[in-house]
Amino acid sequence: LPQFGQREMAKITPLEIQQFHNANRSKLAPATANRIFEVIRRSYNLACGVWGLLPASANAALGIRLHKENNRRERYLSHDELKRFMAALENAPNQCMADVFRMLLATGCRKNEILQLKFEHVRLERREIYIPHPKSGKGRHVVNEVAFEILQRRQPVAGNPYVFPGREEGKGINNPAKAWRAVLKEAGIDPQTTTLHTLRHTHASYLVGVASLHEIAGILGHASTQTTQRYAHISESELDKTYAEIFN
Fold first, then answer.
1. Would you state the pLDDT for residue 247?
2. Angle at 205 between CA 201 and CA 244, to 5 degrees
3. Cβ distance 236 to 208 under 8 Å?
4. What is the mean pLDDT of residues 76-100?
5. Cβ atoms within 10 A of the Cβ of 52, count?
6. Which residue in 45, 60, 168, 213 is deepest, having the highest Cβ count within 10 Å?
7. How far apart (Å, rounded) are the C-alpha atoms in residues 176 and 156?
């Protein structure tokens, strides 16, 4: 939508798809343009192949290549930025949101893994968190002392199963973007270059030098060490402070 949404697939030409794909590249990041095209390509593959709704000759997505993706983010917080960030969290008016950010930094989990965390996934007696449906598709356990210090002060809200409850009854926090920008502003950190995912990169960067890439992949829930390889180059001299110092 709106360019192809009301068109019959068999009447769309490869040239039109190519022009659409190229136009997206001029206004979107390469990865975003590729994800849009992949939806189109998957639709044609289903219609012309798996489902047999169209002849193979109607596949207008054949031969169109993905754009080269060079927008991978490897931003992580420096030691000085971390100190300012933690101080800003202490001053944050919404400490539930602040604890979300602390958890993301302490565990290296993805945003939704923490936002969707329920008390039933927290096993205090075993001091572990169970992530049931991560991006990799395999559940995993997170063992982290700092995370448990945070979780021990979270109190259940009646009728809400989530560790970090949202404003809607029975639901978790949906969008922490506003609180995130406020914390970054307080800490003097550029919001244009710093996303919630930066906390995951920062956590991973502190594991470099004390854990193997295979171990880091397991902690972060990567399906393979190829994704983890991006952290192999990080300088230990820049990351010589421990989480104990940052969180205390």
1. 61
2. 110
3. yes
4. 93
5. 10
6. 60
7. 19
The reported pTM is 0.61
Helix (H, G, I), strand (E, B) or coil at 141: strand
Q: For position 187, what pLDDT does the model report?
A: 96
- Taking 3-state DSSP, the helix, strand and coil percentages for the chain, each rounded to the nearest 5, stand at 50, 5, 40
Query: How would you list the strands of the sheet with 122-123, edge to edge?
Result: 122-123, 128-131, 140-142
Between CA 244 and CA 55 the distance in angstroms is 62
Residue 236 banded pLDDT, cuts 50, 70, 90:
very low
Model confidence over 147-201: pLDDT tens digits?
Answer: 888 888 888 899 999 999 998 899 999 899 999 999 999 999 999 889 998 998 8
> Six-digit token pair at 209?
């030098």
CA distances from 166 to 107, 109, 163, 169, 239 (A): 21, 19, 10, 7, 34
With vertex at residue 120, the alpha carbon angle to CA 116 and CA 122, rounded to the nearest 5 degrees, is 85
Alpha-helical regions (H) of the chain: 14-27, 30-45, 79-91, 95-107, 111-115, 145-151, 177-187, 197-207, 213-220, 225-228, 243-247
At 118, is the secondary structure helix, strand, or coil?
strand
pLDDT of 242 reads 45
